[in-house]
Amino acid sequence: MVSLSVFKTGKTGTITEISGGCGVVAKLSAMGIRPGVRIRKVSSMHGGGPVVMICGRTQVAIGRGMAGKIIVKEEDSDDCPC
What we know:
The protein is an alpha+beta fold. It is 16% helix and 38% strand. It has a single domain, classed as Ferrous iron transport protein A (FeoA) (SH3 type barrels), CATH 2.30.30.90. The protein has 2 helices and 6 strands, in the order E-E-H-E-E-E-H-E. The chain has a 6-stranded antiparallel sheet with strand order 1-6-2-3-4-5. The two termini are 20 Å apart.
């Protein structure tokens, strides 16, 4: 398991944990980002910038700091319906 900020682009995984305070957890939850949800990382910029992922049928861009608080377990199969 790794944080979303270092998760490989193009890979699919399941969010296992969000290691942040109540505010971070609430903000991510409002965007549909919570433990148990399958995601696919679309892109990120080296050295900073947003991390883009697909969560459900929504494409979401979040800051690298917030992405570092999301722990993802990589899945073997990339046939995610997301």
